[in-house]
Specification:
This protein is of the alpha+beta class and 115 residues long. The protein has one helix and eight strands. It has one helix at 2-19; strands at residues 32-40, 45-49, 56-59, 64-70, 76-83, 91-96, 100-106, 109-114. The chain is rod-shaped.
Length: 115
């Protein structure tokens, strides 16, 4: 009888210690920064951010996209909007991390404007 009591108390102690033990640390991924890009022009664009990555992101007409990229030490990045239509020009501007860049049609040309 005594052995059953000791065995039961050991099992209960293990269960309780598992419930109130240290919390598991969550694995953190690599740090990411982002910029918001809004297309207010009449053409679809692809966006390229000048970082270590040369990835291009599609930006359809009248769309607003959040573009994430690996964090850099600099808090300013260059964002280039490349027109998918040869009749329209490309534009490039410097944007702070977390800021919004607007691709705006001005007459016959397109401009990149940070907010």
């Amino acid at each position: 009888m005594r052995q059953i009591f000791i065995l039961g108390s050991c099992i209960a102690a293990l269960l309780v210690s598992g419930c109130f033990g240290e919390e598991e640390e969550q694995a953190k991924g690599p740090a990411v920064d982002f910029v918001m890009v809004a297309n207010k022009a009449a053409v679809d664009y692809k966006i390229r951010i000048t970082t270590r990555s040369s990835k291009e992101y599609p930006l359809p007409f009248k769309a607003v996209e959040r573009i994430e990229f690996p964090a850099t030490q600099s808090k300013v990045v260059q964002v280039k909007a490349i027109s998918l239509d040869r009749d329209w020009n490309d534009c490039i501007t410097s944007v702070k991390v977390g800021q919004t860049m607007n691709v705006v049609q001005v007459g016959e040309t397109v401009e990149c404007r940070p907010e």
